[in-house]
Amino acid sequence: MKIVTAIIKPFKLEEVRDALTAVGVHGLTVTEVKGYGRQKGHTEIYRGAEYAVSFLPKLKIEVAVAAELLDTVVDAITATARTGQIGDGKIFVTSLEKAVRIRTGEVDNDAL
User: Fold this and answer.
1) What integer best gives the mean pLDDT of the chain?
2) Predicted pLDDT of residue 69
């Protein structure tokens, strides 16, 4: 089992969710986060004054998947979250030792 963590642009959430549902992912967690990478932020003008915005709003999506689905999930996120512009985000994959569904006591792949 693996955990796929993707940092994406906020307006891509619905497309990514639809793509993950289409490949068989039944649940995900979304967190609003702020950060920067190569973008290094940007400047905005508000009421005539210029402000530096160092941290940009992003969404962090976390999905627990069976190892067999890993490549399909990563490909689905990559294809739908890509705009071709700087700041599209990143995907991180980590191992998952154990998963337990609290309601039923199912473990590992059955719990996903």
Assistant:
1) 89
2) 93
